[in-house]
């Protein structure tokens, strides 16, 4: 033990003499761990939130009985099933408007609630009585409490007082939990329930049909929550970026460890000569590496925590905007996250050091003359790598052809990038050989030839640069494409000039009556939305009034002739792109939509884009909607108003009906809000993008630093034959820039290919919409500049050292070189 | 003190029913027992009982139960026990309301016991919607699929014939109960004193049932016959705060004589013994408050608790000196408030069978 | 104390076996100093490396005191070097990131044979007292080789092996360093086997052995 400590101290003494090298190694490990664990923290945070939502009183984790038509049903069915031995618990779900905002109200029955549904621990902790005894209690998550007021307060909805608020930490945000009896009163649905949760308790019970006839059907629990399924793509995206940053970080670690190993070779030999056995030395080398990785891992975790905390608001905004998922803004991490972070740091360090460690293990005590066949070996290696690249490209092509899932989409991306990275050295080799052939002056020929010789040392860093650039181009193009499409779409979609949301149907009527007397109001466009389900998944039914505003502006992707006219009778509908892709619906198909009065048969006459909506949607004539879904709130309306009268009208409405900003908005504000939400959606991607590029820059810098030391012997002869140090430095800089430029030029088409994959494969699978593909040349030029700037910065330090190097140091090369 | 242990059955189980879903804050609930009688009807001596009306619920009182235990045996003579219980508790004074606002909570317990196995189950329900209730005419008490129901030619004085059903994942019971004589008022003409500080309940029993039917344990049906005993009790008065638990016997003596006997234990170690001696013709007399004794003989350890499962009972004035042994010492009811309840045998001056319940251990 | 019998060793190079040692017999007694000389390629360095256990012989036997070196595995040979041998090379082979003081104690520390008094004496005799806190790169060649000799002798080895220890030093320094080494060898009573191509330096030792074409001439 003592002996090992002595050897460890000797090994560590190297870092004391080379602090920059140690810093590089640690930076690599820290950035790899930080980005990886930061992304993991975000994913974990989201997953906890989904679990909360899924477990909130019968999310998708619980088996349940629902009405065949998706409507509510009488609670006598609950009693009949209990009396037949079924371990069921009733639940009523609805929405309430509080201060113009919509909340999900869940009525539960705590006494029969299956214990595994959980999440209602406070109910029953002596508080059962106050929960079920009028006025009862309304349980909300802490986040929701902040929106609604203080504990004990009673918010108002539609003129009635809701039960006093009580906070319960485990609840999903946005849900209001009350006793079922109280919920029936609030929602004015006496004796009705939405579904029956089925407990796991096994008791003999009668067949479902013998009790409930064909009124109810059993929905089996799914291990994956709805939110998890919906948000998979988003987290896959985050994970992919985390992984990319992690690998780029490992490039740094690899070059730092490689350098340190080369420099310590004589030391290792001396140790062996002084009687340290190979096994002992290897063990201590691993111990040293693991200790460093441990330290770096812990620092990386702390950094990862801060990265996650900094990105969390954007991630939460993205998830809310895209999927309606509520993620708490406070980061809470499980112990397993810390362990996993340290473990990934250690594993990463070991992987990055594998080559060096293998060399150390095989190292003979006596230095023997190296065969000078490296050039041949390099060529063979290049050919092998290129062959592998072609194989990987073939796999990518096969995946594009046959793959039909999100995973396949990401696999295509991964294969593309891996293949491109593998083939990069060959591309550079060919480009440099071409340069060499076209050179005339001897220094020119040396310039190209020496660049080629440098390739093997630089290729890892250049691969990192290639990947970072390609991903940047790809993601940048996707975001820009999205932005452009979204803006055009928004203009059509937000066609009315003013949007009003009344607090109640009654108020809506009063507002409409008042508006009719206002001459500046050109049209009142009522709107409404009902919830139902199609093919087992929830969908929205949107009611559109028959008005020129919609006919002229509402953007349709595909439609039959006279689609708007055909909507009028109420037997046709438009479907959103997401829904049409998910259920493979096309124009002319017929669907049956469950409605309270029975199924509603509809023919599809058009498909429209509905970006950013997690739910499938169909659009029907508004009047038909109110006939089929009589309980649809009539509180929303859009107004056409002469442009110069918008502001005064809003002010007048606000004053007359006590509406605030949440209830009334003009088109411009709606657009700004929507754009803001969508910009946030991609801000996380952009941030991770920047991190990745930064890490790639560091990788390039460390590689060049590593090379700079070993290159002195190659530069010294040139200096000796009369090239000035300044000239040599300039040539060195030029060489680095040249290979970086070739790499960046190669990255551009690769990036566009990545963008195409994201738009045509990943987005379609993940979100259900396909965006048109645009190329943005300015953006590409910008990235080229960034890449060259990164290469310049990375090359500047070693080159500056070379320019300032004392002649004595160059002379010493000749003395030491044997 | 094992808080939850104090609460079951005759122990004003209903008083704790409101806590059934948690149990953690029992202490608070226990303290609550002392107060919540307010607004409910009081138990006073001299109440005239009327049947079948009194078979039904008394919602003006806080707590109430319908309690049946049966000592059974199969054709080969192997002994079994069965329990079927429905508890009612009002969470709030002032008559039951319609629908979910009803404020009545119901709890059902069922169990079967053999020498080798003991199976139990529990279930809960809110009143007002039909998931659980009791109707007096015709007598029908139910919670979920468990049921106690008067059959054709039901005699309200005999509380018979009855049909009893309960089923759970790993057992079920279906019994028919017949009786050829009238029910019996316990305590002093149905007024049963629980302490010298006014705690009391209304209490009557039908100890003369002949039972027959079938019990199923792990899908293995057994046809059984035997005797059964029903207890009906209701009250608003909580148990005195210093009473920690009790040991309760219902014994079928030779010659159709019956003995109901219980000991209430206090924190300070003192105890009170109450009981009624019932003659074959249905006359019921309170046993004397002093001179009698019950004492543990051997204990069994279950779930880390020590339970006296064998007892020595001595009523010198009645010439009774017996020792009881359990059919299955592990007859532990691991329900939301756990307790011990199971069939016993006894020998000595008298020999026979019966049921024992122990709480607060 | 050191007995080498019938040692052979050949290397494979360019598809051809080249026999470097072809049956070498050699003995060094306790307290004896022996110079091993011969022209380039005579196999003298190879012989030294084999004795040090840095490489394995093809056949023959090397015995150090009661240990047969050729029977040991890698760990055993490392232990032998650590505990019973001192090695000095032409290239000094100091650890550049350790100070002179740390370099000096290094081998005795890992051998667990650190002797403070002997250490002080070594520092004194080698004249390193004022240099203890320097790093090897701040020392002259002669100073570096003195540190290497100190490191090799610190664990009081049975045998000091030196491979052209003065090859990188000028003549005056070489004489001075070798004199110091001989002194200390005498002081510890260990054996001393030095490879040198200099007849002048070889003559200063007790006995001279010349290797020619892989056998003792």
Automatic annotation (TrEMBL), chain C:
For this protein, the record's SUPFAM superfamilies field holds: P-loop containing nucleoside triphosphate hydrolases
Keywords (alphabetical) are: ATP-binding, Nucleotide-binding, Transport
| Domain ABC transporter residue range list | 2-217
Extract the InterPro entries matched here: AAA+_ATPase, ABC_transporter-like_ATP-bd, ABC_transporter-like_CS, ABC_transpr_LolD-like, MacB-like_ATP-bd, P-loop_NTPase
Q: Keyword Ribonucleoprotein, does the record have it?
A: no
Cellular component, GO annotation: plasma membrane
Molecular function GO terms recorded: ATP binding; ATP hydrolysis activity; transmembrane transporter activity
Q: Which CDD domains match?
A: ABC_MJ0796_LolCDE_FtsE
* Name of one Pfam family that matches: ABC_tran
Has the keyword ATP-binding been applied to this entry? yes
The UniProt function text for this chain reads: Involved in beta-(1-->2)glucan export. Transmembrane domains (TMD) form a pore in the inner membrane and the ATP-binding domain (NBD) is responsible for energy generation.
Similarity annotation: Belongs to the ABC transporter superfamily.
The record's annotation in PANTHER family points to: IMPORT ATP-BINDING PROTEIN (PTHR24220), TRANSPORTER, PUTATIVE-RELATED (PTHR24220:SF659)
**Name of the protein this chain belongs to:** ATP-binding cassette domain-containing protein
